[in-house]
Amino acid sequence: MAIREAVLVTSGDLRLAANQTCWPAQEQLERQLTACFQAEGVALRRAFPVDAAAGHGFISSQRMGMDIFAAIPPEAPLVCATAAWQYTHHVLPGLRSHRGPILTVANWSGQWPGLVGLLNLNGSLVKAGVSYSTLWSEDFRDAWFLRGLREWIRDGRVTHDLSHVHPLDAAALPAEARRRGEELAAELRRRKAILGVFDEGCMGMYNAIIDDELLNPLGVYKERLSQSALVARMRTIPDAEAQAVRAWLDGRGLQFRTGGDEAADLTDGQIHQQCKMYIAALRMAAEFGCDAIGIQYQQGLKDLVPASDLAEGLLNNADRPPVRGDGGGAELYAGQPLPHCNEVDEGAGVDALITHRCWRALGLDPTTTLHDVRWGERCAYQGGEGFVWVLQISGAAPPNHLRGGYAGAVSERQPAMYFPLGGGSLKGVGRPGRIVWSRVFVAGGALHADIGLGTVVDLPEAEIARRWRNTTPQWPLVNAVFDGVSRDGFMARHRANHVNIVYVPAERAGEALAVKAAMLAALGVRVHLCGVSAAAGTGAAGEPAPVRG
What we know:
The chain contains 15 helices and 22 strands. The protein is of the alpha/beta class. The chain has two domains: 5-157, Rossmann fold (3-Layer(aba) Sandwich); 170-548, L-fucose/L-arabinose isomerase, C-terminal (L-fucose Isomerase, Chain A, domain 3), CATH 3.20.14.10. The strands form six sheets. It has a six-stranded antiparallel beta barrel. The radius of gyration is 23 Å and the shape is globular.
């Protein structure tokens, strides 16, 4: 029976300032969506009123979400709409037990991180085993969106073309790549790795937590650390050592855009504290024998010290300021990154660990990072024209990934709305080149990995400036094309708000992808090739076959 009434819920941020800032965009989304449903003969009603005193209508806590869902009929058709970043755990308890059809929806905007919030919600629902459908639109009038909306109203589900996704046949991989990957997997199980986790569960990202029962069979174990211990360790770092890190960065040409107002500017004092965090993180990681770490910085830590973003970007770079232990001795993690997963995204951390081992075995630069899948548009670029994604992350972007390296990067103050004590980012434009992109995620109680090839493209400077204006200008910007994957195919399939990227020489892209896929598969991860074939590692594969997404 066709849907005639649906209930609207709107998960939001925990931070009041963020909810208030993003509320006008959410209001516009809800007006457009309500009109779309009305035109199809469906009443869309909010599950709860807007809070005029708070200045927004978002669900802003887990308790609030539970109370709201308690009054929603469990069989009711449900629409989760977001134009902003949202904390999935605010609504996940209600969605887990909901029995009616669920539709997640976002606006297509770079200014407001609704797409990032949507992808996190979708990835979390996949991990939780909750059935859902999903849609997105620039103006909610395009034929693609309306077709999907009508399908959901009629059938309670939406189908998407996911023909770019194919389960890996490891036997089809080149023999040498398969051998290397299997050897690396065996070595990881012999010499197990430690992922240092500075307080997991950042910003409601349920999909970013991998339970030990899934993680340990890979040979990866967590060292559960505390952000408060990191702050305490920062206080033990001598000023002279932090000054030496700053001098090293100045010598490499990193530009710090500073001012004198602690509340509004990036200051030398904030940078000094960030340099101490970099040293403290390395020393703690070395003392616990960590192979990678992640800092859950957006809550708690932001109220004690400046943002961790500069430290994260330095940790992820192969070429970085040298740090030794408290008593001197050998340089810590000399000549290589200490992989850092922003926001303690453990799927990204596992990916970075595996990439690090594969790329070092292949003699390649193992510098890697994650990014938010922020937004994108069609545009002309050097060598072609097509859909180009904007990938952005506040922290963890390494200088080796940026045009001009350190000399091409700047550090600007993080927005005060998110980081009251300031701190600089590591900002630049992604350098042109071939990349392997990937995502490790949980589905059906098992670990999966999507993997494909892409290119970071060169855009005209005016287009780069426009994209920065339309997103977050303080953050690094990567303009990427994913081989053989359409915009909507990627959105329908991707199981997270983050995607990992690593550069690779063009002539070795297929080889590197094959080794990584082989290692993942040998570890028991279910690998899916996206837009590429196993034999060659290049080119789109498969015939269109619409499936539910």
